[in-house]
Amino acid sequence: MHTNHKTILNELTNLDNTNLKIELSIISNYFEDFAKSLNKINLKNINIKFNIWNKKSNLDIIKNDIVLLPYPNDNKRLVKSSNRIIDSLNLGRFTILSKVKQFKEFEKFTFFGNLSDGLYWIMDNKEKRYEITTLGQKYVNANYSIDSVCIKWFNLFDEIKERI
Q1: Is this prediction's pTM over 0.85?
Q2: For the chain, which domains are there?
């Protein structure tokens, strides 16, 4: 089973070292290997809750204040979609996103960088995080809503017709 669990495991030690008390909910469809690997790490400040992904997982996301999206900056993950970022912003959750080139488009609407630094930033910028998230929601609605994507497709079809 291919998952992003290795990515999360790589970040957990860094997050634990912030000495912030963190309640972390992880949504996935598979946890067996992750749980085995997690047992090898001695986390002092992070309490993890596992949620099996389902059609109503958005309800789990909106119960949380922040969404952490760790991505390694490597060629293997260049094919990852921006769906998790778009969903998080659309649901009004402040998103801390690893600084990876394929998602630079979301730099103005997330904390774009080191996840641990993002947690500290939030503590010092509570009002700014709401402003950034609101801008992110507007951006996602303007560029990724069903209506806006349909318009882009119609425009593309019109352009193709003109060339034929």
Answers
A1: no
A2: 5-163 (3.40.50.2000)
